[in-house]
Design goal:
By secondary structure, the protein is mainly alpha-helical. The chain has one domain. The protein has 4 helices and 2 strands. Strands 1-2 form a two-stranded antiparallel sheet. β1 and β2 form a beta hairpin. The protein is globular and about 40 Å long. The protein starts with a helix and ends with a helix.
Length: 91
Amino acid sequence: MGYAEQNLFIMSRQLVGDKDPRRYEFSARLRVCDASRSGSKLGVASLTALCSVLLKKNFRSGLIIAGEIDFGGSIEPIYNQVALAEIAVEK
């Protein structure tokens, strides 16, 4: 979540336009659906949620967002998308 917040601050112009994310206080609740309940690989989902709040746009239900983002803004690929989608459908 921290990496997502820092990426939002750094790339705010590209992500949310003229909104200043530093003027907002965020509170988020994430639901972990992986088998280990570790909560890893939620960086992209966290960043998307923060942008959604700033833009006041809702997502459709049933949307799956997954992926890891590092401090530099690089997004790591997901190698087993089918297994990820199957787990999400089960949950």
